[in-house]
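pinned: reference chain
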Amino acid sequence: MGCASSAPKEEGQSAPAASPQNESQEQKMAKRRLSVAPQHAALSSTASVPLTDSKDNANLSALELQGKGSVRHAVTSRKGLVPYNKNKVNQDRFVFKYALGDDPGVSMWGVMDGHGEYGHYVAAFVQENLPQCLAAEKGMRQSPEAAITRATAAMCKRLQETDINCAFSGSTLVFGVRIDDVLYVANVGDSRCVLCKQGPNGQIQAVPLSTDQKPERPDEKARILAHGGRVEPLPGPPGECGPARVWLAEADVPGLAMSRSVGDEVSQTVGVTSVPEIVRHEIVGDDLFAVWASDGVWEFLSDDQALQIIRKHWPNIDAGAAALAEESTKRWRAEEEVIDDITVLIVAFNQQQQQPQQK
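pinned: its structure tokens
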């Protein structure tokens, strides 16, 4: 038998019928990130939230242009594919803000990946409110990590005061705050940030600036178990039912395949948290660019593979972002009937660097 349960994909989809292949389509689907239980998710959604335009220079104030300086960014976001849900929406969002808090030396960039029936509303809420909460932190320069943590908590508190149903819906969040030449990357969930560094021989190196927060990570699992939750894959034959997920002690919900998120109120009763992990990185001359991307990119591509795709187009980061999104889509299409939402945000720090050498 295949995996029994049925925690659906992000948009609340149930798995398609099993195929006669050696590995059923049901089993293959179960190996991907499934987030909420079917009784709490609709099969379709007609809601849509418009994405922000990344071609922003014409819309920036003089102070924001000063803060942007020579930094360039490019972003691509595309809706995935669920064949049995014609009304699927893109649940990914991205955000950027220069001269944060009217300080030209402070900027931020981030990517959100919503899941559950109302995940796109949660991601859109983060898109709008995160920059506001960060800007309100007066201690950003004095204690950046503490300020980022407080701002994230303040944003989550705002979310709780809305009428967005977050019981079984939420969003990942990975963002960076740059203060002069220091970058602080905060991560909540399994979207990811990777830095591209040019080595002394001209070859590029991938430097992870976030760590995926999965329930099977020993420290994350310990917290969930301590709060009375379970960490198990979907029920079914060993090795066929995908990654570990977060469940209530006596109910097969919610089946969240990440250990930190924004929203997901039921999951947070058993140890899932919205507190970010923060990595500090000093930007130096051989740091070419950083990539923030939703997990639709990382499902079938390694950090190094993603950077190699971008570098083929360097210094044209618009082309690099589009190429990475396209290659991610191709990998999904080759493996599954569904395609996850895919968002790529590239920030180039040192434009003076030459084309990295090919390996």
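why pinned: The radius of gyration is 20 Å. The chain has one domain: 48-213+258-348.
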